[in-house]
Amino acid sequence: MIRTRTDGDVRVVTLDRPEARNALRPDDLTALREAFDGTGSESNPPVTLLRGAGDAFCAGADLDAVAALDDPAAFARRGQRAAAAIEESPSVVVCGIDGPARGGGVELALSADVRVATPGATLGEPGVSLGLFGAWGGTVRLPRVMGEGDALDFALSGRVLDAEAALRTGLVSRVVDDPRSVANEIAAGEGDALAAIKCRLRDRRDDGTQEDAEAAAFAELHEAHAAEIARRRER
């Protein structure tokens, strides 16, 4: 279900269950977490592209699995751990949304560093129609990404956004024909700088602590790249 391959500076993690629009079962969530936390996989490259196989990104949780749950809270926590592994990966994670993303699929996308959609992408949180809501960290991340007003509208209405509407609300940052092109663009940067930028922008500590860490990280990168900085200055 979770397939990985490395191509140069980009690792591609594919949700590979196209016959079910890449809907996720409990074991799939564990495999996805392992793909991002390094368990059972190769070391993280500078950039990882998360994508879905076939004509969908991810339909979210497999409803057959949800209906059969003995411990719904444990299932939610499993999804939360998978999303956290994506967010906390040392690799910069680009989520390429091509086709439908629903429920848990949107929540996984929210945990990525960069979300891009193809023109045919659609995103929705249909949980309210089932008497549920996204519980893989979506209630935490959605208002951070969209703002509280748009997040409430999106989740409470269950409406589906096309790629342009998702762009307007900030749910995605670009609409592109090929998400791999964005992964390649980011991978052209220096790997240590990419990791430092991600770490700093993901830091949720108080401002003063963040600024101290920012200065230290800048000094470390400056020392590592002093020769290249000097060479460019002399051009």
TrEMBL record:
Pfam assignment, any one: ECH_1
Domain of life: Archaea
Listed InterPro entries: ClpP/crotonase-like_dom_sf (IPR029045), Enoyl-CoA_hydra/iso (IPR001753)
Recorded family membership: Belongs to the enoyl-CoA hydratase/isomerase family.
Name of protein: Enoyl-CoA hydratase
The species this protein was found in: Halorubrum californiense DSM 19288
